[in-house]
Design brief:
With 217 residues, this protein is an all-alpha fold. It is built from 9 helices and no strands. It is elongated. About 24% of the residues have low confidence. This is LEU7 protein.
Length: 217
């Protein structure tokens, strides 16, 4: 197989792997927060008007006076201090009642994995772009022996990773995908090292830059 045809096959597998990686790295849709109740959506002015109306209704003032004269209860309890009585252990917390569907925070481990996956997506995208724009026109003039085996393996690893999404197997697949992409880039650099023309210098530089970013993960 000539190098342009082999590179096209490799590009096809790498592009498929890139689509899979982007789907895996896409953020999950967050839980829908509950809608506020009708009392929460009312303005403070409405509440003030409602309180005034309740007090001005017949019997309202008398009820308030009776409440103030209840034995054992001071009319100033809780008014001046502003302190709230503690909740009992069995009583639901206000924040739980207000936002029962909040998404939990990410752990440091999950954040590290997400960052590593994001950089793997970026490196794969850059490699496909360099091969399409720089390497393919170059190989049409000076063929080199290339084989798409590593690209096929890379796509298979990414497909398997998409079925896991999390856990130790996902971490293992992410590591293997990282190593496989590293191998692909290193082999391309070695092949171009014996290239008979200086026209491959920009390609080697771009590949080394991608490899450097990948190794920094």
């Amino acid at each position: 197989m000539t190098s342009p045809a082999a590179l096209l096959v490799s590009l096809g597998h790498q592009a498929g792997a890139l689509c899979t990686l982007r789907a895996v790295a896409a953020p999950h849709r967050p839980h829908r927060l509950p809608q506020p109740s009708h009392t929460q959506t009312c303005s403070p002015a409405w509440h003030s008007l409602r309180e005034e109306t309740e007090v001005s209704e017949p019997g309202g003032a008398a009820e308030l006076e009776e409440e103030k004269t209840v034995p054992g209860k001071s009319p100033k309890d809780g008014d001046e201090t502003g302190e709230l009585s503690p909740l009992s252990p069995d009583e639901p917390r206000p924040e739980r009642l207000a936002w029962p569907g909040l998404v939990r925070c990410e752990t440091l481990r999950e954040m590290a994995l997400r960052s590593k996956l994001s950089r793997l997506v970026e490196a794969t995208s850059q490699l496909v772009e360099v091969e399409q724009i720089l390497l393919l026109p170059l190989l049409q003039q000076h063929p080199l022996p290339l084989h798409p085996k590593d690209s096929i393996e890379f796509r298979n690893i990414c497909s398997h990773m998409a079925l896991q999404r999390k856990g130790q197997q996902f971490e293992k697949d992410l590591y293997e995908a990282h190593q496989c992409l590293k191998t692909i880039i290193e082999k391309l650099i070695c092949s171009l090292a014996v290239f008979p023309s200086d026209s491959c210098v920009p390609v080697r530089f771009a590949l080394r830059q991608i490899l450097q970013n990948l190794l920094a993960m």
